[in-house]
Amino acid sequence: MAQETLDSESAPAAPAQEVSVVVEKPQVTEKEPQPSAPAPLPEPEVPEKPAVVAVEEEAVEVEKPKVEEKEETKITQSVSFKEETNIAGELPEPQKKALDELKQLIQEALNNHEFTAKPKAEEKPVAEPEPEPKKEEEENKEEKKEEKEEETPAAAISEEPKVETDAPAAVEVKEEENTPPPPPPADAPAAEVVVVETEVAEKAKAVDDDGAKTVEAIEESVVAVAAPPAEKEKEEPSAEVAPQSEETKEAQVPPPPPEKVSIWGIPLLAEEKSDVILLKFLRARDFKVKDAFTMIKNTVSWRKEFGIETLLDEDLGNELEKVVFMQGFDKEGHPVCYNVYGEFQNKELYQNTFADEEKRSKFLRWRIQFLEKSIRKLDFNPTGINTMVQVNDLKNSPGPGKKELRQATNQALNLLQDNYPEFVAKQVFINVPWWYLAFNRMISPFLTQRTKSKFVFASPAKSAETLFKYIAPEQVPVQYGGLSREGEQEFSVADAVTEVTIKPAAKHSVEFPITENCNLVWELRVVGWEVNYGAEFVPTAEDGYTVIVSKTRKVSSADETVISDSFKTGEPGKVVLTIDNQTSKKKKLLYRSKTKPYSD
Q: Which position among 227, 243, 412, 599 has the lowest Cβ density within 10 Å, counted as fewest Cβ atoms?
């Protein structure tokens, strides 16, 4: 979702006309174009689903009939992005299967320590060259042994007959007779024994009285010749047993335990919360398991390189606390993050943030730190709220000509869309200038339907009204048309606000009934004001007197944003507020009240 934020940030669009566009859409699987414009936003995002655009025009501004008809049709078709379930049992079968497959891949990766494989890869080139020469040396030694074994039988036969002084002639004759057969190969010792045994038999027949000695001598030579093959047979099995024992030893060594990897404080595969994390990556890649798995591995690697865990504890200052801040929740319970680009009109702040690469890098780290802290506050239970709403205020935003801002935006966009998938439930752009809408329309064909379904654009005249569609007025900051103010106030976000639309050239009255000994407190505002306001107390008794609480006066947008007042009385009656809209435009009235016990 952060990607969507940035995508939109850097995208201008639309005609010079006050228009409130509601574009709904899924999240992007592929990286979206990086338009130039305002600074990076909080959430990264990714695509999917159809988008519908709702365009609301002011009553006074009218365009060609054909265009109006099309826009009206779009309004009826406009459907806000609806978040999918994160409960595994409620997923469609294809998605459930994809989740199971991704879990298997991750489990294998954890077992094989693939998330920390990089350091091992660097050690391989050093470790591999050593075993190879050893193998060659062993092979050379074996070859030499075989050659010696081949030479040994022949030497034994030729030498031992010389020792036999009693029958040298017989030995010579036998050797000549046995000359024709070719010498047996080194790997066939059995053949040597057969030849020698044949010689022994022939010699035994030819011997005379002294032949016993000859036979004994020959038998000794037979034993000597047969011995080497026997020794070789004994050596061979021992050579075979050695490697088997090594393999057995290796098999006996227990494999290392699976590595532990966490993202946003949630251990992978350790609990059901991790299903929510995995589904974010799957949706970001359109449930393509291998792509989602690769994205997770890249994210884990990037988080280590960027030093996310240590970044959370870094002190990066508070100069940008008015640029990006969290305040309130939308009607569905999503936390709301506000990005105020107009703050960068302050030249000193702009220079301190984007003047050089070092400052832009610091800004990026601050932005990522803010996002990480915000994410840690989300509820990753399958039924919890694990996304947020981004409100991007483009009023007085630096144009696309600001090179430094554009560079920071693009850099942040890349990081957010690659490493923070599916964290934005809605992207609302308010006070949108015409050039931003125009540029956005140009790049719209390149955005995925899932991403488009989350975009909402509102012109300055429609900004407050657009926010109220998604965020209750008591949750909207006062600078954006709501009643939420910082510090100790009489009312809090727990006190609901009533909304009323006052038609052009119409008067509207609000009545607060009160009882005896009652202290009535109220506050109200009219978005854009330019109306007349007055308040009075009307007693229930017929003979009572009306009390002017607030004299009727004209209130402009520059006078005050919120009117707070109170009235104490010891008799029953009602307080009547009157708002007179004499303009040709409809007005949005917001008010709330409460009573407190009162005694003299």
A: 599
Could you tell me where the DSSP H helices lie in 331-356? 347-354
Domains of the chain, CATH where assigned: 86-112+257-305 (1.10.8.20), 311-485 (3.40.525.10), 496-595 (2.60.120.680)
From the list 163, 181, 176, 174, the residue with the least C-alpha distance to 200 is: 174
Beta strands in 335-375 (DSSP E): 335-340
Determine the Cα–Cα distance for residues 513 and 572; give it in Å rounded to an integer.
8
Any idea what DSSP says for residue 257?
P
- Nearest partner of 523 among 532, 507, 510, 513, judged by Cα: 510
Asked if residues 33 and 7 have their Cβ atoms less than 8 Å apart, the reply is yes
Are 429 and 457 within 8 A, CB to CB?
A: yes
Distance CA 345, CA 325 (A): 18
- Give the E-state strand segments of 123-278 in sequence order: 262-263, 266-267
Q: What is the DSSP string of 432-443?
A: --HHHHHHHHHH
Contacts of 155 (CB under 8 A, 6+ apart): none
Angle in degrees, 0-180, between the axes of helices 211-252 and 131-163, rounded to the nearest 10: 170
Mean pLDDT of residues grouped by 10 in the chain (600 residues)?
A: 44 40 40 41 41 36 38 38 85 95 95 74 41 52 54 42 41 42 48 42 45 46 45 46 53 78 92 94 95 96 94 91 94 96 91 91 94 95 95 88 83 90 95 84 79 90 94 95 87 93 95 88 94 95 91 88 91 94 94 82
